[in-house]
Write a sequence for this structure.
């Protein structure tokens, strides 16, 4: 089970923050049912890295034959390029 941490949106509305976190967790838990439903991450261009969206957040995951790993949840306005190296290292765990 994912353990989300408090977010920046919680400062504005704890109700909205909880709703967004709940939707992110629900989406993450549903990914194994249809992992290829997400689009290929444009910055990575590897079909094993996919992403789905919840509101303005990108849920990025890696498809592996043994498991699916959510490697990042980031706000859509944030640049992904500086994080690509970290994303690759997380999937090796």
């Amino acid at each position: 089970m994912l353990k989300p941490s408090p977010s920046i949106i919680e400062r504005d509305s704890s109700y909205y923050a909880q709703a967004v976190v709940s939707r992110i967790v629900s989406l993450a838990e549903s990914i194994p049912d249809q992992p290829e439903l997400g689009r290929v991450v444009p910055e990575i261009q590897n079909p094993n890295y996919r992403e789905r969206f919840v509101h303005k957040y990108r849920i990025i995951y890696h498809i592996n034959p043994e498991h699916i790993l959510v490697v990042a949840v980031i706000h859509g306005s944030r640049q992904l390029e500086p994080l690509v190296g970290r994303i690759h290292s997380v999937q090796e765990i």
Summary: The domain at 8-91 is CATH 3.30.2310.20 (YaeB-like fold). The helical segments are 14-30, 84-91. Residues 2 and 32 are 14 Å apart (CA to CA).
